[in-house]
Specification:
The complex is a heterodimer of chains A (279) and B (182). Chain A has helices at residues 6-22, 26-38, 42-61, 89-103, 146-149, 162-177, 195-205, 217-231; strands spanning 2-5, 71-79, 82-85, 126-132, 137-144, 153-157, 185-192, 246-254, 261-268, 275-278. With 279 residues, chain A is α/β, with parallel strands linked by helices. Chain A folds into two domains: 2-21 and 65-144, no CATH class; 147-273, no CATH class. Chain A has a four-stranded mixed sheet with strand order 4-2-5-10. A four-stranded mixed sheet of chain A has the order 6-9-7-8, sandwiched between helices. In chain A, helix 2 (26-38) runs antiparallel to helix 3 (42-61) and helix 6 (162-177) packs parallel to helix 8. The longest helix of chain A has 20 residues, at 42-61. By secondary structure, chain B is α/β, with parallel strands linked by helices. Chain B has a single domain (2-178), classed as Fe-S hydro-lyase, tartrate dehydratase beta-type, catalytic domain (fumarase, Alpha-Beta Barrel). In chain B, helix 2 links the parallel strand 2 and strand 3. Classes of the chains: A alpha/beta (279), B alpha/beta (182). Chains A and B meet through helix 3 of A and helix 5 and helix 6 of B. The complex binds iron/sulfur cluster. Iron/sulfur cluster sits between chains A (66, 68, 145, 147-148, 181-182, 269, 271) and B (76, 124-125).
C-alpha cells in the first residue's frame, strides 16, 4: 500500500496544465523541422517556419501556443495498491485545472451545451481512469482544442469491409476535415472495442511520441500506408495545398464483438499537447 | 505581399485574389459564435451594431487572457464554418472581410461574389506569434461572453492569405488540386 495525498495531485495538475499549453513536446518540434525540409511548396514551408517560431515564443514567454487551450482531458492510471488520502480525487483534479487555467492565463472554453454559459474556470475536466497493477499513479494532462476535436468520428463498420473499409474511412475523414483541424495534424484511430472504448483509445493513441510506430507489425504497416495515402490528398499544412497534412498516424486495436467492427478517428492539430507525471 | 488597411473599398477588394499574401495594418473587429448570433439578432431588430460594419473586417478569434503587461494573450483564428450561418447576413450589411481558418460554405462564397467581400486565413494555431502583430485591444461589446466578447483590435503587419476572392475562387480547392497524387 502506498498513500498519495490528493493535494499533490492538485498541484501537479495545475503545473501540467500550464506546461502542456506552453511547452510543445520535442517530438512535435522535431517533426516541424523535418517537415520544413521535406515540404515542397513555399507556402507550406512558410507554415512550418511560423510554427517553429510560435513554439519558441510560447516556450520562452510561457504563453499558450494556441489561444484555444482546450478541454482538459486527464488520463489517470491508478495502481490498485495506491490509497488516495486528503479529500476527493475528482475535486482535487478540478481544483488543479482551475488554478492552472487562472495562473497560466489560459483560456476558459467550457460551457453549458444548451445555454452556452461559460463555467469560467475550464472545469470540469474529463477524467479517464484505468486501474492497473502496482502502487504507482500516472497522471497525463492532454488539453484538446475544439477545432480539431470537432473532426472526431466514431463509426460502426461492417466486419466484411475489413481493412479496406477502415483505411478508406480514415482517409475520407482527413479529406473532409481539410483545413479545419489546423494541419499539420496527428491522426489517431482505434479499430475494435466498443464505440466508447474505441473513442478513448483513439484519443490515447495521440499521446504516443511522433516517430514511434505501433509494435504490432500489421498495425505499423497500416500506419505507413495511411500516412502516404493521407498526405497524397495534397491538403498540406493549413490546407492550402502542399505535401504534409499529417505528421503521423497512430493506430490502436482492441478485440470487438463478432458482429461489429467499430472505428474511432481522432485528429489532433499541431498543438499536440500532453504532459505526464508518475507518482 | 499586398498591404491593406480597413475599412476596405470595392477597389481594394477586387484586387485581392485567392492565394495572395496580405498584410493588414489598422483596425479590425473580433467576433465568434455567440457574438455573431447577437449581431444578427440586432440586425433582425433593425438596431445598430456595436461598430460600423461598412467595409469592416471581422477576425474570428477568442484570445487567451492577457498577462500583466501584455496587450492580448495568444490570438490565432478559430474555425470559420461555425460562422457560416451568420456571415451572409453581415456581408449584406456591409462586411467586407473575414479572417479565420477552414473552408466556407456555399452560401458564404456566393454572398462574397455577389456583394464583393473576401475571406482570409491566418495560420491556425500560430497564436503566440500572431499576438505580436496586435498593438491595442479594447472590448467594445458583450463583455459577458468572455473570450467571445467583441473586441476592437489595432494590428500592424498581420499576415494572412486570401482564400476566397470575389470571383468565387477557393485557394483550398486550387491548392489541393495541384498537390493531389491520385
Ligand atoms: S485546432 Fe488546435 S491549433 Fe487549431 S485553433 Fe484549435 S487548438 Fe489551436
Amino acid at each position: 500500500m502506498r498513500t498519495i495525498d490528493v493535494s499533490e495531485i492538485r498541484d501537479t495538475v495545475r503545473m501540467l496544465c500550464i506546461d502542456a499549453n506552453t511547452d510543445l513536446g520535442e517530438d512535435v518540434v522535431r517533426a516541424f523541422g523535418e517537415s520544413l525540409e521535406k515540404e515542397e511548396s513555399p507556402a507550406g514551408k512558410a507554415v512550418f517556419e511560423a510554427l517553429l517560431q510560435n513554439a519558441k515564443i510560447a516556450r520562452e514567454e510561457k504563453s499558450p501556443m494556441c489561444q484555444d487551450t482546450g478541454f482538459t482531458v486527464v488520463f489517470l492510471e491508478v495502481g490498485q495498491d495506491v490509497v488516495l488520502s486528503g479529500g476527493s480525487l475528482v475535486e482535487s483534479i478540478n481544483e488543479g485545472v482551475r488554478q492552472g487555467y487562472r495562473d497560466g492565463f489560459l483560456r476558459k472554453s467550457i460551457c453549458d451545451p444548451f445555454t452556452r454559459a461559460n463555467t469560467k474556470d475550464n472545469t470540469p475536466a474529463v477524467i479517464i481512469t484505468d486501474i492497473v497493477e502496482g502502487d504507482k499513479l500516472k497522471l497525463t494532462i492532454a488539453p484538446k482544442g475544439g477545432g480539431s476535436e470537432n473532426m472526431t468520428r466514431v463509426t460502426m463498420l461492417t466486419p466484411s469491409g475489413g481493412k479496406k473499409a477502415i483505411i478508406d474511412f480514415i482517409v475520407q475523414r482527413c479529406q473532409e476535415a481539410g483545413s479545419n483541424p489546423c494541419p499539420p495534424v496527428i491522426v489517431g484511430a482505434c479499430i475494435g472495442g466498443t464505440p466508447e472504448k474505441a473513442a478513448i483509445l483513439a484519443k490515447k493513441a495521440l499521446l504516443r511520441k511522433i516517430g514511434t510506430t505501433n509494435p504490432d507489425p500489421e498495425l505499423a504497416e497500416m500506419e505507413m500506408e495511411l500516412l502516404t495515402r493521407i498526405n497524397n490528398l495534397g491538403i498540406g499544412p493549413q490546407g492550402m495545398g502542399c505535401r504534409i497534412f499529417a505528421l503521423a498516424v497512430h493506430l490502436e486495436k482492441h478485440p470487438c464483438h463478432i458482429a461489429s467492427l467499430p472505428l474511432a478517428v481522432n485528429i489532433c492539430c499541431h498543438a499536440s499537447r500532453h504532459k505526464e507525471v508518475e507518482f | 505581399m499586398k498591404k491593406v488597411t480597413p475599412p476596405l473599398t470595392d477597389d481594394v477588394i477586387e484586387d485581392l485574389k485567392a492565394g495572395d499574401q496580405v498584410s493588414f495594418t489598422g483596425v479590425i473587429y473580433t467576433a465568434r459564435d455567440a457574438a455573431h448570433k447577437r449581431l444578427v439578432d440586432l440586425l433582425d431588430k433593425g438596431e445598430d451594431l456595436p461598430f460600423d460594419i461598412n467595409g469592416a473586417v471581422i477576425y474570428y478569434v477568442g484570445p487567451s487572457p492577457a498577462k500583466p503587461g501584455q496587450v492580448v494573450g495568444s490570438a490565432g483564428p478559430t474555425t470559420s464554418y461555425r460562422m457560416d450561418a451568420y456571415a451572409p447576413r453581415l456581408i449584406k450589411a456591409g462586411l467586407k472581410g473575414m479572417i479565420g481558418k477552414g473552408k466556407r460554405g456555399k452560401d458564404v462564397v456566393d454572398a462574397m461574389v455577389r456583394r464583393k467581400a473576401v475571406y482570409f486565413a491566418a495560420i491556425g494555431g500560430a497564436a503566440a506569434l500572431i499576438a505580436r502583430s496586435i498593438r491595442k485591444v479594447e472590448i467594445i461589446a458583450y463583455e459577458d461572453l468572455g473570450p467571445e466578447a467583441v473586441r476592437r483590435m489595432e494590428v500592424e503587419d498581420f499576415r494572412v492569405v486570401v482564400i476566397n476572392d470575389t470571383s468565387g475562387a477557393d485557394l483550398y480547392d486550387i491548392g489541393q488540386e495541384k498537390y493531389r497524387i491520385a
